[in-house]
């Protein structure tokens, strides 16, 4: 099994990524940490707890950063609704978050694990940056990072920037330059692997997990596309099915100021960084395989 920590800001697609990670037998979720992003951290923490409770899992949740390192916080409630996860009545009796911060919980879980951990951040990267700055020793105990964030093409927040990197570009820069192997799961594939209207209608009738996902996913505010982008879910798909995703190694620089703030600049010709690379960038995906896997995963959940 792949031992992972999810660092997340649920968020509709984060909720779907958590659903896959918590229920796939190949994945062992050791810890969930929350961060401010789609909505405030109080809400993202609560939403993570709702998903854990919904599936009756024992995975601990620790609350993380309230705001980016330097930049001012701006949420995405216009896409994800005021609660961040609207449309479904979750149980009210939620477990409590851990009595320690996300950074402390990350350090403890990583250092105490007998195997190296894979970090899967699907929100802004503030917790990860704080962790690496305060406890650099954890780096040797991390297998790799598979992060949703960035784009080689245009952004979804500004024309240059993807939302997670835009939210905290200074943190993204620290993460991309940490020296840990990192895979960038960005808009280049997540805008391709849309959940089709057909998949969505099938999802509703699979089982209660499918109904829950359907009911929240249809509230996604970005309905400009023929299907719904399940951004964060692509990280889990990549962990399980790397053969369905094409990647290229390159150097990724992060713009931290000016009109292109939050842009991930890929050295696509290898010229600027002398052929050196710091990331494995997802550039293409089998969208049909993604849809098939998505429905398949959910259909296997019994609760
Ligand atoms: C990312 O932004 C958030 O709104 C989504 O949850 C995803 O992590 C996509 O740009
Ligand atoms: Ca997210």
Task: List its salient traits.
303 residues, two-stranded antiparallel sheet, 35% helix, binds calcium ion, alpha/beta, 8-stranded mixed sheet, single chain, 12 strands
Structure description:
- With 303 residues, this protein is an alpha/beta fold.
- 35% of the residues lie in helices and 18% in strands.
- It contains twelve helices and twelve strands.
- The protein has an eight-stranded mixed sheet with strand order 3-2-1-4-5-6-12-9, with helices on both faces.
- The protein is globular and about 50 Å long.
- 51% of the residues are buried.
- Bound molecules: beta-D-ribofuranose and calcium ion.
- Beta-D-ribofuranose is lined by residues 11, 13-14, 38, 76, 79, 122, 148, 156, 162-164, 231-232.
Rg over alpha carbons: 18 Å
Q: Order of strands side by side in the largest beta sheet?
A: 3-2-1-4-5-6-12-9
Uncertain stretches: none
> How large is the count of helical segments?
12
GO molecular function, one term: purine nucleosidase activity
Keywords: Glycosidase, Hydrolase
Domain Inosine/uridine-preferring nucleoside hydrolase: 4-291
Organism: Lentilactobacillus kefiri
